[in-house]
């Protein structure tokens, strides 16, 4: 029987605190330091000192990510991927406690002594909560992953499945780490004759209201980045209504787009909430107003083709132009009345809303050479000069408009290469239904041992993550649209064939001085990983909490080993039969019933 051979909770906490002590803020040299420190530690494990080729360092864009494979001593191709990232937010909002950011115990003491956070102070006094920079956003989970990697590698001979651990950087930079690791991961698995069965990632969810009820997601939203290039006409301050302000158009467009829950896909799909991300303004000269402006939004969505998104954004852009024209006319009338200027009437203007492919086609009609080659040369020139993608795309649109000669005002809509494909376990797919049954068994095994309840959210979506890249859904059509509507190539996508399970834990105050992670996290991760190993392999696994390390206020009580439950307990907290199949569908509100007690409200999932 496989079992972890260490005190997983204590080991995970120790490693997590060590990771916090490394000032690995994303975008600084510390990002490379933490990756190298983890790699050095892993290579010192007895297993990897012999199996050196099973640890891979993947360099990308000045940083690095790690892949470590533990091969089972059995004849099995089944492999579980444990995915964690190492991106750490900065200390800009830490104030006077900034110097304690990388000392978890001191930070905890200082927060308890502080007068500004009485609720947090009370929580810290009554629990084993861990504080420190990045503990909730990534380092708590990374500590659990490293402890599990060490323990599993020590007993690889009895491990019933193969395990591959990914420690990724670049999560906040267009998911650069997982993109760079895909080829290496495929080669590592293929070279060892292994198949990727599923992936597991654990992320914080600050919206959880009950730390004893945690959601388990089998679907993740896709993410798109959409830009609006607004072409206006400058005006002199002495003649304020001779032009057409792009900033006024931008304000109307932001009003129609940002956090607009009315922007939906087809019937039955959830709201899409565009989040404002970036603005690039081409300033005017002297007393002249600006002529152009570039807006960028991030959008999480599911079940909608990007072509449909573009058409919806065209409609909203046209409405924003109309809103601006009405405002412009009203203000010009007020100005003339106050200044006692007679005459003047609304000017009839042409205006257009186009997608990037529309603009390219229009410009191509006036081009004397190969426009596609010319645009690629421009992209290379701008990228080599160190421009960001937003700046580069704005420059390309301006150059194309010199050929297309769009009327003023006009709006050009384009996609950006910051695209994350949708990930989903589908009830309609036979192999996915088998996987859902496996997850049901894992949750049953976990829930019967703990007061903590895992709840399957089979029709809810977790935020986009690195796990979306293991088995993207609808990627062919998405890439076709990206190629048409994105000035820069979106890059290569692989399908490693493994759906991902996203488990949410109670992580709070990320990037704030009070960032913390409950100590239940350090039992939750290894226990659920053990349950997954057992369910996937079909073999019994000894849980770390069998020695009294369980979760929940009563879980440390003695259990009846013959029945697998606490003495005198019956029903759900006791010995339930293993599920033979999934429940017949989900409830009307989209919630699954697995792991949920009758008469209780489900914990809320992440919002987007």
Description:
The chain is of the alpha/beta class and 608 residues long. Helix content is 36%, strand content 18%. The chain has an eight-stranded mixed beta sheet with strand order 2-3-6-4-7-17-8-16, sandwiched between helices. A hairpin with a 2-residue loop joins strand 2 and strand 3. Helix 6 (135-154) crosses helix 15 (521-537). It is globular and about 90 Å long. Residues 546-608 have low confidence and may be disordered.
How would the global form be characterised?
globular
| Radius of gyration over all CA atoms, rounded | 27 Å
Structural class: alpha/beta
N- and C-termini, Cα separation: 42 Å
Task: Please report the number of helical segments.
Answer: 15
Task: Assign a percent range to the helix content.
Answer: 25-40%
Tell me the major beta sheet.
Answer: 8 strands, mixed
- How many β strands by DSSP? 20
Mean pLDDT: 83
List the strand order in the largest sheet.
Answer: 2-3-6-4-7-17-8-16
Low-confidence stretches: 546-608
**Strand-residue proportion:** 15-25%
